[in-house]
Amino acid sequence: MDKANPTVSVIVPNYNYARYLEARLQSILNQSFQDFELILLDDASTDNSAEVLDKYRNDFHVSHIVVNEKNTGSPFRQWMKGILLAKGEWVWIAEADDLCEPDFLETCVKQVNQYSNVAVCMVASRFIDEDGDMLQGHADYWASKKPNVSACFFPGKAYAAHNMYWNNCIINASGVLFRRSYAVKLYDSVFLNMRYSGDWVFWFQMLLQGNMVEVYRELNYFRQHTSKVSVEGINSGKRIKEDIDTYVLMENTFPDIGIYKRRLAHGQLYRKIKKVKNVEKQAELSQYLYEKLGGKASDLRLFHINKYLRWVCPWIITLKRDRLKK
Known about the structure:
The chain has helices at 18-29, 49-54, 75-85, 104-114, 156-166, 180-184, 198-207, 229-236, 238-253, 259-274, 279-293, 297-312, 319-322, and strands at residues 8-14, 36-42, 62-67, 90-93, 99-100, 118-128, 134-138, 151-154, 176-179, 211-223. The protein is an alpha/beta fold. The protein has two domains: 8-223, Spore Coat Polysaccharide Biosynthesis Protein SpsA, Chain A (Alpha-Beta Complex); 229-320, no CATH class. Helix 10 runs antiparallel to helix 11 (279-293) and helix 10 (259-274) packs across helix 12.
């Protein structure tokens, strides 16, 4: 490996995951593809994470260990800190609590070199619990009907307008290899000021710059925790607000998105709002949705009606029908 010009920069952003760090770092260091630098970031953990990271200070792959004195409160600011430190053509944000197969990097690097102007390469993932045991179900939208090919290439802007519009189908950064030169351009993007939906915005903006490759092999293991930040975000309404802001960005980017498709998406947002337990918070979010996107209760009714219309109208748009797939 040329430490000055590695092919891949592996960024491990950590906060209070000392108990998972050694297994995670070994899963990276044991990769069959070894042309990478390792950037270790800690966001002022209160456990012994800094001590664990320090054990790897003299490892040949480790180029940076940065321990914050004060917590940033933003995983996405840590992402960008690592991206700006990175020297590789490609970046892998290997979340500190996840795991991977030994040929994750080898497979992804092969795929991104096979196609033109790739911005993002995503593998299939499985869920694991806090103890590392496999959970039921799959993490990927294609799991119920796997393609009969090993990988597929998609034009980035089309993927953003169809697949990423409905929801963030790239659910875990640990399962992605992406182009650093495109990510650096997002150094002042709005995703940095988000707490919950920043990854959705990041992947969307990456795909506006280059193309997408989906790899249909389970090479990533996405750890699920009993207490999740996303649940807190939904109950407080903050995540839903960020989702609404994300739709504003996407609809401004693609002004030709049809009204029916928009209304279905707004109906999805309204359904999330109805699940918020606090009635006053529901009213606040409904007003925010209306002000930002013109979304209203009738969009939710259309969303439910659409579920029945899809059976008698095979041409009608639905989330699954609108997605690009092979």
